[in-house]
Amino acid sequence: MTNDRMCFHAVVYNIMIIGEAANMLTKEFRDETPETPWHDIIDMRNVLVHGYYIASPKFVWDTCTNDLPVLKEQVESYLQTLA
Question: How many helices and strands in the chain, by DSSP H and E?
């Protein structure tokens, strides 16, 4: 985990964007793709936006290293079905 505050804030900001994008997906799409934890993604966005003070760097780092690679694969798979 880096101690670079600017990097931390940039990562948090991008996770918030991902959560907002997930929230903008249709309910039907989210229901049809239950393997992706859409509710958790949206909840994390809400925590970061509204309860930023409780988001520890470890929590954010764990999300980056464990959850985002899986989400990336899932989103790439969804995009392949649209092409």
Answer: 5, 0
pLDDT tens digit sequence for 55-83: 788 889 999 999 999 999 999 999 999 87
List active site positions. 45, 50
Q: Is 4 buried (19+), middle (13-18) or exposed (0-12) by CB count in 10 A?
A: exposed
Q: What residue has token string 């520890």?
A: 56
The better pLDDT of the pair 56, 38 is held by: 38
54 touches 47 (CB < 8 A) = yes
Cα separation, 14 vs 56, whole angstroms = 16
Looking up tokens 């990336």, which residue turns up? Answer: 72
